[in-house]
Design goal:
single chain; about 400 residues; alpha/beta; Aspartate Aminotransferase, domain 1; Aspartate Aminotransferase, domain 2; 2 domains; seven-stranded mixed sheet; four-stranded antiparallel sheet; 15 strands
Length: about 400
């Protein structure tokens, strides 16, 4: 059953709000916000350090969230590493895996990546004098896999790809791609950026075949400041720590330090305790709605939005990505006549319509599309067909003002 806007307090304080920027961050339901407050009011203590009851309660709630994340993606709790965000998770991998990259090795990514899954590997390739190979897209914004065997060779150490494009909305056939890559080079380490996928698509790490996956709580109704890195147990064991400090050590003396087992050796210092605890409520919220209902709702909204925008504005609007609704999530990125996306966004904001404008942290993709910037509307469960109608009315206002 789909939720109503009453589940989200932000609509009480902003009754005219049309929030179409869930790809940047999703709204937070009352149950998540309540849990944030409960920690500070009832058992605000550090985790993994105290033997007193408050600390034990906090530690238990913290570890319960780790178990909930593991269950959500069909993994084991000791394979779940908490970070600050997807970006940190990917940089952790670039830093630790990068120690084994040598001159002449290749790293493969795609043109549709978010900067978080492009820049770390670009910089690593430069530092190590390795080669960075880029998978291109076809005319509909899908990964072009026709020359995969040329891009991936016996020298390919890392392939890192997004599950879903934050610009095109394209759902990549990741399981199939992983199978092809492992067939070409079984030793290749495969990393998946699932930031845009996890609240729209069910993910089973026991079946997917990737070596690592990264995502963030704030894009799936959870708090900001929480990232998740999943890794195969044997892979995490083989990696060195990323940061050094409190609670990731086993023993320290003047001459040497030994470290805890994974995942704790990657979680130095005090984590985002209350945010991680509240994240469990966000996962429960998604499970209560059900992925089938989420996908059905988003596909209906996206189909209606594409049809209505094209009907109203015809050749004046260019919608990016595949027209196959089942191959995309509710991300609708477009250019509108010759109007600048920042102007579009500002005029829409006058009517309380929130969209994203710019390059969406995907400049290489925009360069590939020969576009300096674009406008993005992204839907989630709290959006309605009325929201789409308000977007269309807002774009008519843009046209009237800027024409």
């Amino acid at each position: 059953m789909l939720p109503t806007k009453q589940d989200f307090s932000i609509f009480k304080h902003n009754p005219r709000l049309v929030y179409l920027d869930s790809a940047a961050t999703s709204l937070k339901p009352k149950s998540v916000i309540k849990t944030l407050c409960t920690y500070y009011e009832k058992y605000s203590a550090n985790v993994g350090r105290g033997i007193y009851k408050l600390s034990q309660d906090a530690t238990q709630a913290y570890e319960d969230s780790r178990s909930a994340v593991a269950e959500f993606i069909s993994a084991d709790p000791d394979e779940i590493v908490f970070t600050r965000n997807t970006t940190e998770s990917l940089n952790l991998l670039a830093y630790t895996l990068g120690k084994n990259i040598k001159p002449g090795d290749t790293i493969v990514t795609s043109i549709m990546e978010h900067h978080s899954n492009f820049v770390p590997w670009q910089q690593l390739a430069k530092q190590k004098k390795a080669q960075l190979n880029i998978i291109d897209i076809d005319d509909e914004g899908r990964l072009n896999l026709s020359n995969l065997e040329k891009l991936i060779t016996k020298k390919t150490k890392i392939v890192t790809l997004t599950y879903v494009s934050n610009v095109l909305g394209t759902i990549n056939p990741i399981a199939l791609i992983i199978k092809k890559i492992k067939h070409i080079n079984p030793k290749t380490t495969i990393i998946i950026d699932a930031a845009q996928a996890v609240s729209h698509i069910p993910i089973n790490m026991k079946k997917l075949g990737a070596d690592f996956i990264a995502f963030s709580a704030h894009k799936m109704f959870g708090p900001t400041g929480v990232g998740i890195l999943w890794g195969k147990k044997e892979k995490l064991i083989s990696l060195p720590p990323y940061l050094f400090g409190g609670e990731m050590v086993e023993e320290v003396n003047i001459k040497n330090t030994t470290f805890k087992d994974s995942p704790y050796k990657f979680e130095a210092g005090t984590p985002s305790i209350t945010e991680i605890i509240a994240f469990k409520q966000a996962l429960s919220y998604i499970q209560k709605i059900g992925f089938e209902n989420i996908q059905k709702h988003e596909q209906g909204l996206t189909k209606y939005a594409i049809h209505t925008l094209q009907k109203e504005f015809k050749n004046n609007i260019r919608i990016l990505g595949t027209k196959n609704i089942k191959q995309r999530i509710g991300v609708l990125t477009f250019s509108f006549a010759h109007y600048h996306p920042h102007d579009i966004s500002q005029i829409l904001d006058e009517d309380h319509i929130c969209v994203r404008s710019g390059h969406h942290c995907a400049m290489p993709l925009h360069q590939r599309l020969n576009m300096p910037a674009s406008t993005r509307a992204s839907f989630h469960v709290y959006n309605s067909y009325e929201d789409v109608d308000k977007l269309v009315a807002g774009l008519k206002k843009v046209e009237k003002i800027l024409q």
